[in-house]
Request: fold
Amino acid sequence: MGSASSGHHSAPRSAVRRRFDQLFREIAKFGAVGGAGLLVNLVTFNLVRHATGLQVVRASVIATVVAIAFNYVGFRYFTYRDRDRSGRTKEMGLFVLFSAVGLVIENGVLYVATYGFGWDSPLQSNIFKFLGIGIATLFRFWSYRTWVFRALPVQESVEGATKAVVGARAFRDVEAERPPVRVN
Reply:
């Protein structure tokens, strides 16, 4: 009786564990691409700022745009490579939209620090750039996984599996009706 009870609870726990593991892998992949994008963003920001003498927020916007392009490639072909690819134009449009919102969040933090509080030394600019990226990253993770790189609908996955099983059964049935081959 105890084993039936524990068996009953293991199936839901197993499903929860699989979902948690899947989410953990997604977060790790998102973090890997995001970490590389963060490096691209900060290096570009400091290079543009010091090489051109542009204002802090303008240099930051350029760096953010470069990082967004870098991140799209990483997210599409690494983090979310198994997600639906049928609406690439819609996907890119939503990616640009949500990335633009992230750009405003990220650079809004830097703008307030720089022009609202006068914190514009290179160290302060990098700290607030980093903080803005962190806040924007939370928004981007939620929006990209929810709206941009959508999971294939469960029904499509079930239909595909059903077709595979039906096809395998039909093949088996045809093979069973075929007379045996004699080798002389």
Q: What stands out?
A: The two ends are 59 Å apart (CA to CA).
